[in-house]
Amino acid sequence: MARFVSRTMTAPNKLRAKQERRGKFVRQCCCLASCLLGIAAGPVLCRAEETITSTQPMGVVTILTEDNQGATLRFPSVVAFDREQEETYVINGGQGGFVIYDSDFIPYLFLGAGRGIDSPQGIFFDPKDGNLFICQGKSVDHPPRLTILNGAFFPVKEILFDHMPDAENFSPHRGALGKTGDIYLVDNNIRGVLVLDKDGNFLRWLKPTDSVLRQAREDKTVQVQEKESPGEKVAAEPPPTTESPPETDLLGLPPELRPKSQLKAVTSGGGPSQGPVTITDIITDSEGHLFLLSEETSKVYVYAANENFLFSFGEKGGSTGKMSRPHGIAINEGRKIIYIVDYMRHTILAYDLSGKYLFEFGGRGSGPLWFNFPNSIAVDRKGRLIVADLFNNRVQILKAEFNMTFSGSKELKTGVPATATPKEPPVAAPTTVTPEAAGQAPRSNVEQETGTTSDRQNIGPR
């Protein structure tokens, strides 16, 4: 006998089934709505991402962390670029020489003691004769000097300064070659620029003048000064104090590169005095213009090829658009941009050729496009920035992420190349250009030398 089972649902079962159908419908509706929202928001999110990316002024090409022997870079303090050979020179801290990288940024040799280099402080190049000019400080065996090497890295000449007027204690820190072959040297502890002819003979001093604030550490010297001048006062906006690296990180680092967080600027009761300024770095462009960077005043003093003063720009401070302790300067002539690296603010500032502030980027950190006391900067033939990221123990190679060429200053073409005849040094009237941000980027934070060769094309040790 067949047995029939009733399919009639009770009231509780009907209610449960209805709730399940309702829940399923709601879930389907939510899923469909999410899909529609995703499709609609996709282009907007892409445009937003493009906008954020476009505001980044620079991108990373590569980061150099090893020398020619595969060892880790230690305190790369100075970078320079030889435009003729397309080579990058890096002073590797404590090794007394240069690691040289080829056009692909591959380290292939070291230039040091075998060529008379034991205390390098800077380097610049002669594009006509292919000579290298190496600024060297005092060492155990040698006084401060300018060492000249030829294209095969053989010593040509050494220039000493003890016989030159007002240069008895001169130690070349940075240098540049003028349009007519004159040699311009700076010592960041002596005011002005020492000018020599192409044979190394003294010509004159070039001394820009400005309102000078005396900087001193809070030590016994400062205490004596305060006793003698009770009216001294701290400047309204001193350089910002910044946390320094641990003392263990400073081992082997020259004293002048150690962060000085205890510095303070003091002025006499009558206000800042007018006088010659100390110059930290110097460069020239293809037209022979001189760009003198002063850490003391946080300004750049621009001269024509005949050493006539044109203008100055820059402002000291610890906020956006200002310079606390500028240490290096470079020019991208193609884009008409002047780059300045600020050691204490861990940033790179950009100006057009008239001195107008454009933007800055960086900040303290260890990631790409972040810096930890950057100390030197250069520009290669492709316009890429080469930055000595000192306490990150690396060199960052950066490229511009914008397609824009900024206007320059017509005044830059004033003057003709200077002759070798000594003359009175021009006096630079202080001029201040108020910075205006044209675009604000988001804040982001070497082996002892062995062996010799006679041919530069041989890439063995030198």
Describe this structure in words.
This protein is mainly beta and 462 residues long. The chain has a single domain (58-413), classed as 6 Propeller (Neuraminidase). Helix content is 11%, strand content 32%. It has helices spanning 11-54, 220-228; strands spanning 58-64, 76-82, 87-92, 98-101, 107-111, 120-125, 132-136, 145-149, 155-159, 174-177, 183-186, 193-196, 202-206, 209-212, 214-217, 233-234, 263-267, 273-276, 281-284, 290-294, 299-303, 309-313, 326-332, 337-342, 347-352, 357-362, 374-379, 385-389, 394-400. The strands form 8 sheets. The protein has a 4-stranded antiparallel sheet, with no helix packed on it. Strands 2-3-4-5 form a 4-stranded antiparallel sheet, with no helix packed on it. A hairpin with a 4-residue loop joins strand 24 (337-342) and strand 25 (347-352). It is elongated and about 105 Å long.
List the helices and strands and how they pair.
Elements: H1 11-54, E1 58-64, E2 76-82, E3 87-92, E4 98-101, E5 107-111, E6 120-125, E7 132-136, E8 145-149, E9 155-159, E10 174-177, E11 183-186, E12 193-196, E13 202-206, E14 209-212, E15 214-217, H2 220-228, E16 233-234, E17 263-267, E18 273-276, E19 281-284, E20 290-294, E21 299-303, E22 309-313, E23 326-332, E24 337-342, E25 347-352, E26 357-362, E27 374-379, E28 385-389, E29 394-400
Antiparallel strand pairs: 1-29, 2-3, 3-4, 4-5, 6-7, 7-8, 8-9, 10-11, 11-12, 12-13, 14-18, 15-17, 16-17, 19-20, 20-21, 21-22, 23-24, 24-25, 25-26, 27-28, 28-29
